[in-house]
Amino acid sequence: MSAWFSAAEAPPTEASPAAALDEAALLLKSFTRDEAELGARAPLPRLDGYVFVLFIAAQLALNWALRLIIARPLANFLLATPKRPTRALRRMVVKFSQACLELLVYGSFALIGLVIVPSQPWFWPSKHWWIGFADGGHEVMRDDLRCYYLLYGARYVAGFVNVLLEPKRKDFVEMLLHHAVTVAVVGISYLYGWNRVGCVVMLLLDPADVPLHLAKMFKYVSDARESRDKKLAQRCTFCADRVFELFALVFLVTRIAMYPYVCWSAHVEATRYFPKGLPEWTCVALLWTLYGLQCYWFYLIIKVAVRMMATGRAEDVRSDDEDDDPKDQ
């Protein structure tokens, strides 16, 4: 096993909140630098821990700022919210704002991942995820990749908190499990040098969520405007259905078809290059757990598709609150 502490020595760095601010600024600037100018080092647990906490706090603050400044005003405008909205419309505003925020967050991370991950020299073929792991050095990451990794883990911690605070979905438990497993995968793979397969997983998981939340936004506008502007509602319903079809296709390709190859590579291909220890087998188990959750959600997608063929419009079977009153829908 090649652990983070067996990597090439990094220059000593003071681990303090002040140093973490400087480190966070340096990492964020790496997104704008040329590849030739980027540094690389192995994780420094204490310093990276401070940076990780900073990123969590920043993303929680940014999420609520985006909700208040962009998502909520956009919801009120597109849903044509009156001064005294009904209970059902207030809930719809909350759901639209949540979907809009998720669209911005997942879209941003999907773009960052598409720029950073394929530019790594080991990206493909998959044997390069494992060759040389036993000799050490895989834990050394370019600054842009390290920043992406820490931001991604912080995003899922912030998402875990948001799941607890926001209206509960029917798959509330599954969402909590998904966020917890993802954070565990990110943390273990970061510390033990499995970052190559870890960031490939990140790259595959984000894109499908973009059309999903866009479809939800179209659906909420359609539902809110149905009694006041039927033509607009029909157009939004049409757009919601087409975008949902795009989401189902992207989900099928990235999470059901491509993702299990990553699980296979970590489970089988990696064994050709080094013997696995407890951290490696833990990562393998967590990766397969994530795949099980993807299969569960794809089952829900199929249910939506069947309902869509029967009724002519898509309804997200996982987005309703558990305590929704049917008469408020």
What do these coordinates show?
- A two-stranded antiparallel ribbon has the order 1-2.
- The protein starts with 16 loop residues before the first helix and ends in an 18-residue tail after the last helix.
- The chain is globular.
- The longest helix has 38 residues, at 230-267.
- Helix 3 runs antiparallel to helix 4 (143-165), helix 5 (172-191) packs antiparallel against helix 9 (278-311) and helix 7 packs antiparallel against helix 8.
- The chain is 67% helix and 1% strand.
- Mean pLDDT is 87; it is low at 1-12 and 320-329.
- The chain is built from nine helices and two strands.
- It has one domain (17-328).
- It is mainly alpha-helical and 329 residues long.
Features:
Lag1/Lac1-like, 9 helices, TLC domain-containing protein, TLC-dom, two-stranded antiparallel ribbon, disordered N terminus, membrane, 67% helix, 2 strands, 329 residues, 1% strand, mainly alpha
